[in-house]
Design goal:
single chain, Rossmann fold, binds zinc ion, two-stranded antiparallel sheet, 12% strand, alpha/beta, five-stranded parallel sheet
């Protein structure tokens, strides 16, 4: 199996590398990020996702805890009520951030947990105990599922479990066994998945839309497009493993995690995002949350203040599975207009770094504003006001296509029943 440092990054797969970086840092910081790589067979999506474990930072857990209890935030039945002193007595250890796979033959019991038959039948000390499944064991790490579209088709009971795990952050799993009380455990697990939408049974969003919507980001992975890249691969460039490069990458995540506390996504970007949601009638707020969260993480990775172009970059992967391509193109065009205008006309103020107590609550924290108004902010507020008035967002009015209604509006009761309900074809 290839190591991370042996992979060749090119124009067809670079976005997956970026999104994986976001998911690693976020998981390491305690907030799961669910990603789905779609692409044809042979594009290397599965190889890249599996190799990413080589650059996982280590995490600290209470010594020997199978649930991977964070010493600062223990959650398992055995440790959650312990005092810091008691935890100190048990001790802590560093382990690899988990990376576990759910296979297509997985059963509910192996995924969430089941009764531990070994302990039950023990001659010396028989006791009813739980054998933890894959998901609780992957707490604070990653679960990988290859061909998730096929799993969604053939194993609906596993999909229901995933919906619970991915529905909230943190998610939850429930372990039910006859003769034992039902145990519900909170889990912080990032679900990473891959699929080929061109193969049976087709794209995930057509099979289980609810599950598809749970993914923060969906990335298209494509084959290399240039002769140079193919030559790189053929010549074996990047074939030699480079452990030093992997260690540096791990170090960069550890440093970026320290920066997260000081990063605040500017209010203007949040407003732009809220406007996109309202103006384009998007169904799910999850997509907006993913973009906002991703922008925050990306900023720590790049060491730069969050910008409109970060939003645009993430919109592509966060809304791809949540709106149609026409809507997506328009959203991107509007954001691009906003960023070009910004670059041409205004000087962006430096981002103020505000240390905060708990960075996971970054959405609720008050933004400390720079003193005085500036043109950049004025533009954004003008933009959001324009949206509230239902005007087209920040584009030159000359560029806006205006379509007159096809028919004059009439009260509903004057319509025939057949006119009230239209088929998809009729609407087109
Ligand atoms: Zn524990």
């Amino acid at each position: 199996m290839k190591r991370y440092s042996q992979l060749v990054k090119h124009e067809g797969n670079s976005c997956l590398f970026d999104v994986i970086d976001i998911a690693i840092l976020s998981t390491y910081a305690g907030v799961p990020v669910h990603i789905h790589a779609e692409g044809l067979r042979g594009t290397g999506k599965t190889t890249i996702m599996r190799a990413a474990r080589n650059i996982f930072p280590k995490i600290e857990r209470i010594k020997g805890c199978e649930y991977n209890c964070d010493p600062k935030d223990p959650h398992c039945p055995a440790h959650r009520d312990l005092s810091p002193e008691e935890i100190e007595k048990i001790g802590v250890e560093l382990i690899d951030m988990p990376f576990l796979e759910i296979s297509h033959s997985a059963k509910k019991g192996t995924v969430v947990g089941s009764i531990d038959v070994g302990k039950l039948l023990s001659k010396d000390n028989p006791q009813a105990a739980l054998l933890l499944g894959t998901i609780p064991r992957a707490h604070r790490g990653v679960i990988f599922i290859d061909e998730i579209n096929r799993l969604a088709d053939t194993a609906p009971e596993i999909v229901d479990i995933l919906l619970d795990v991915m529905g909230t952050k943190p998610g939850k799993v429930q372990i039910e066994e006859a003769g034992l009380p039902t145990v519900e455990i909170p889990v912080k697990v990032s679900v990473w998945a891959a699929s080929n939408p061109d193969e049976e049974p087709g794209p995930l969003e057509n099979i289980r839309r609810q599950l598809s919507d749970r993914f923060d980001f969906v990335v298209d992975v494509e084959k290399p497009k240039s002769i140079g890249t193919v030559l790189d691969i053929l010549n074996g460039r990047g074939q030699k493993e480079d452990l030093q490069m992997e260690r540096e990458k791990i170090k960069s995540f550890m440093e970026a995690k320290e920066k997260l506390e000081k990063i605040e996504v500017p209010e203007e970007l949040k407003t732009a995002l809220a406007s996109v949601y309202i103006n384009y009638g998007l169904e799910s707020l999850r997509g907006m949350e993913s973009i906002l969260h991703g922008t925050w993480i990306l900023s720590a990775l790049s060491g730069k203040s969050p910008e409109i172009k970060d939003l645009s970059y993430l919109v592509k992967v966060a809304l791809k599975h949540r709106t149609d391509s026409k809507n997506l193109a328009e959203i991107l065009k509007n954001l691009e207009n906003l960023s070009t205008k910004n670059a041409e006309t205004f000087q962006k103020p430096p981002m103020e770094l505000v240390p905060r107590g708990n960075f996971t609550n970054y959405r609720q924290t008050e933004v400390r504003r720079n003193n005085g108004e500036n043109a950049f902010k004025k533009m954004f507020f003008a933009f959001s006001r324009a949206l509230r008035r239902n005007a087209p967002p920040a584009v030159n009015p000359k560029d806006v296509e205006i379509e007159a209604p096809i028919q004059k509006a009439v009260p509903l009761k004057q319509l025939d029943f057949n006119e009230r309900v239209k088929t998809e074809d009729e609407l087109l």
